[in-house]
Amino acid sequence: MSGSALLVSALSLGGVCTAFGIFIAAANRKLKVWEDPRIDQTEELLPGTNCGACGTPGCHAFAEGLVAGEQEPAGCTVMGPDDIVDVAAFLGVDAGESNKRIARLLCAGGSDVAIQKSTYEGHRSCQAAAAVSGGGKGCNWGCLGLADCAVSCDFDAIHMSANGLPIVAPDLCTACNDCVEVCPKDLFVLMPVEQELIVQCKSLLEGNPAQDLCDVACTGCGICAKDAEDGLIDMIDGLAVVNYDKNELASLAAIERCPTKAIVWVEGEQFPEHQKSSRSFAV
Amino acid sequence: MFGKEFFRHGVHPPEAKDLTADVPIRRVPFPDQIVLPLRQHIGAPSRALVRKGDRVERGDKIAEAGGFVSVAIHASASGTVKDVEKRAHPDGSYVDSIVIDVEAHSAQVPRPRVIPHWEGLDKKELLRAIQDGGLVGMGGAAFPAHVKLSPPPDQKIDTLLLNGCECEPYLTTDHRTMVEYPERCHIGTRILMKVLGVKKAVVGIERNKPDAIKIMRETVPDDLDIEVLPLTVKYPQGAEKMLIKAVMDREVPEGGLPMNVGVVVMNVASVATVAEIFETGQPLIERILTVTGSGIKKPRNLIVPIGMKVGDVIDACGGFTDDACKVIMGGPMMGPAQGNMETPILKGTSGVVVLNEEEAHPQATYPCIKCGHCLDACPVFLDPQHLGSLGLNMEYMEMYDKNHLSTCMLCGCCSYVCPSHIPLSHLFGVAKSALRSEGVRV
Asked: Distance (Å, rounded) from C-alpha A119 to C-alpha A124?
């Protein structure tokens, strides 16, 4: 009795499975969408971080763009030059021109030069501090130094210096935009590395009120605009703004007479004077 | 006769009102300088009408409304306009402000002006006069009063509800207003009842202010239907939706306004100011303010000119004690801490509370133990525990989309009861400001 029950269930289940198997096989043949096998192969060569810095939603979409010829291998900011050449060789395309960009902080007001109006003791996050009457810093525009950017960075490219400023490592930064989005004071901008003349201040105060809060504030005096080539620097709302369309005119002349050293010439890392301490105090 | 005289959930923080509950209101001498930010209210900033060097008299209009949801600003002291420049605002930003160097020995009375008799004015003219008088909600939110008082024609209003709860600990601003100026409150109520066309007004006062209840009852005019209703003491009873639930037993729908259930709620201090606008012609240029807490040498209730700096106000109360540690603008449950003593008192600032080191000492935060106290405390029935964990992970969109973040009014009940000291309401405030910066209306 029990033997026939086993046989019936085995046969009926087997029959059902076979029927569905045939159906799936037929559907697969009929409905198959062909995808270029090079897309998956290219994706394996990419870093797989899905950071989005290239402008596509992730590495698979970037690989599709590469195979379709819409993207250039150098568009990936995470890969090193050797990897870019590998991808270009695999696809038989030109590597393209790499346009290295990195995140720059528009504030130099570390704890050594900027005053604190009060001490913030709440939840350790810049966004949380900014919600309590602007945070503890005297300057309303300045870096709060609670490291939201360093936490958000997937590439470990941001370390906090001893003076509470984030230091971006140029070789690790992929310009993925995460720090730009997380900063409640909007202090990060992505800049091509060849833009070396930078105003490291966003304070809209002018003159003494600005300098009372921070030794390296832009006071809006306009000396840099006068010293630089015509049209390179505009004074807007009490702040010097570099017109990067004319970046080829930039020279050291613009920074020489700045009374507060708010405008600086940056090659590589920002805040070189903080570098040493940044290594030991990294969090 | 209407509601149960209380709402569900909420908390009972220590009241600490005895420091100033019996201290009569006094005027302060003018400070040397007044700072009047052009953005003191919810809505469009006002537009300055004066320039550097102009001489202004106390009560002069120095900025006009910048739109419908905006009000005028008046000089709160006579003097010379030093400049219209960026000055520190209590919210931490720098906003364009009119700075007035006050003339020494200038008089506290505003110069006489023509006051149209309010009984001869129609509704539209009354509303314009209120907007021109610079009136905003003086309980803290600073919402322009004339907007609240002009509901769309299809919205029937049957009751004017006066908010005399003052549920925030420490503050005695509304309490002293009711005790010392009950007639003014009733005149204001009479004018607002005419504006709204309602026959019924209710004053909700918590039972911990028996003297205010008594004096408000005794002074009700015979020809008006004003009921003074004592309410069970509970925080946050003064939140308008809670008050409507307690007094009328009506529930304001999520995302709705009190006018959706036929009620307009006004703070008693705002109502008293309405009376002042129409009785003496004096616009909103000064307000009653409680300066209190263990960090203040002489806690007092003061009449201060709008725009007086916090530091000057504290000096007028004998200054800080040696262990003063934290200055809070507003009440301790909802008011933000303030680090800059140069920021001015605004139209919506209801108090200045200074805590000492022991009280303000930050408490260590521990992980959530899922005890559910916050769910029992939340007056709007949210799940602060879940919202808090989303907040820590910066999942702001999910807080808004699926967990009704916009219903949260940041009353602070959840933070108050949390045994792990998780700053829940602070996290929700952070989430709200992050979402607002992306253009989401929360």
From this structure: 12
